Amino acid sequence: MGPGTKEEQTKRGNLRDLFLLGEDIVFLNHGSFGACPKPVFGAYQRWQRELEREPVEFLARRHNALLAEARSALAQYVGAERDDLVFVTNATTGMNIVARSMPLETGDEVVSTDHEYGAVDRMWRFLCQKAGARYVRAAVPVPISSAEEVVEAVWSRVTPRTRVLSLSHITSPTAILFPIVELVRRAREEGITTVVDGAHAPGQIPLDLPALGADFYTGNCHKWMMAPKGAGFLYARRNRQGLLEPLVASWGLEPEKPGPSRFVDLHEWQGTRDLAAFLSVPESIRFMREHDWDLVREGCHDLVRRARVAVSEITGLPPLTPDSADWYVQMAAFPLPAVSAEAFQRRLFDEFRIEIPVIPWDARALLRLSVQGYNTQEDVDRLVAALASLLGTA
What we know:
By secondary structure, the protein is of the alpha/beta class. Helices cover about 45% and strands about 15% of the residues. The chain folds into two domains: about 110 residues, Aspartate Aminotransferase, domain 1 (Alpha-Beta Complex), CATH 3.90.1150.10; about 240 residues, Type I PLP-dependent aspartate aminotransferase-like (Major domain) (Aspartate Aminotransferase, domain 2, 3-Layer(aba) Sandwich).
């Protein structure tokens, strides 16, 4: 059963019934906040009820063991050791833990790209301004034809004052899978700290975080892993964990019973909060395994590939990257002719009931398509027909 066959299309159509999405919307925006399958959401609600059944027992006596068990499942999924990662509510929180721990001084530089997520851009500008450091955004022009282009564009902005290299694994506005392995390798040779924003990577591409080599890696579980909202993680290489300060100073600073990891003690307990999303991550991993998600992912990639061809035919504009899973998997961004991003997105929703972002980036509008297991060729066809209609009358 190959991706794109009638049988596979039927399977993806049946998967739609396992999600809580409204039937009246063509949902092509999984990349923004994800969508949680019913079985995973059910586990989430069971954990919430379990907490409320006996809050003191749950939060005061059971939480360490419960979180450790959930971290074990997540760590195995991303190729890491259990105590080299901690749960955070989202990738932005993980990035803030790392960035606020960096000992930046006047004249230091943080190098990133012009493809980064807006919240991370704002974070680095804010912190660099406070420290008297410079936030340097390397321009990575599109269309891209080779990984070497990306690597050289980024590395051309590295100087002897560069202290941190901060990169997206899969970019948010342009949906490009960056060749970060070579950039991380170069940075390590130069003694530059590497921070990877992997918000879109877990669940969309296989991960082996130690092999990747970054000092720090933060990711979301509530996007492509389909866990409940508010589930993410921060990974730190063992020899760099001591650099990180807790974003919230709490009991872990001076634990009454220290655990096996100072890193976990400092960052896991932040006071009373709902742990249900974290504890549901093993269920999301189980859901993907039970539904042959590697095969589902292949089918999703095939739908995105076909969409790239169809949209380019309508717009007359080339795709941003070569046609390869080395550059995109389940998400791709397409340049549009001169349109108002906000108005165009609103028309797609109001007139065609299609939920998809149109992102202003580098003085152009990009349509970012996300395809998850619940999407079908019919969904993509409706998008293509809507684009043909709107751009034909623009």
